[in-house]
Amino acid sequence: MWPQGLFPAPVTTRLAVALVAVAVAGAFALSGGLAAGELSVDPTPSGPNEAESTHALRMTVESGDAVAGAAFEDVLVDYSLAQPTADVSNVGVNDIERIGIDRGDDDRGTRVDVTADEIGSVSGQKDGAAVRVDIGGNYTIEAGDEVIVVLQTVQNPQNAGTSEVELTVNTQGGATSATGPVIYEQHDAAVTFPDQTSGGETVT
Predict the structure, then answer these.
(1) pTM
(2) Domain 38-183 - what CATH class?
């Protein structure tokens, strides 16, 4: 047993720090789970050469960002930053699954509190490696909000690997951008063998 006055305080401190870390991690997991200023990109399916992949992008707005307190006008999703590069030339108005705002960044995944359901136009840029979406309606982005963009019929690149994607909000003035990784990975096909047990006689 340790002599009185030695070591109990550090042990207690470590336990308290651990409990705080667990509490913070739990609260973070219950929210959108994305740090301010970061971009999350989730392609489904994520395999290379998938012709109709759905890409979900999430970006949290910080208090110092130009778009904080501004009207939500448009978004530009740019895959041209690095190789391998996805192709969004087939993305049109009907392929915008969701664009909106998660107020306070407190919802899981791509759930939104405000849906930008008035799409003005969709235009391809950078030889099909970028797409810009104009938004109608009257929506205001606040600090702490999470901007959600979900695009369908994205053509994943032919090769597997990790690339970079940039999401820019309000490209015409007072823009805010965030860049994040996107991973394209080859999934091995699962092979199931049928039960080949025989009920016949044993040969000796």
Answers:
(1) 0.76
(2) mainly beta
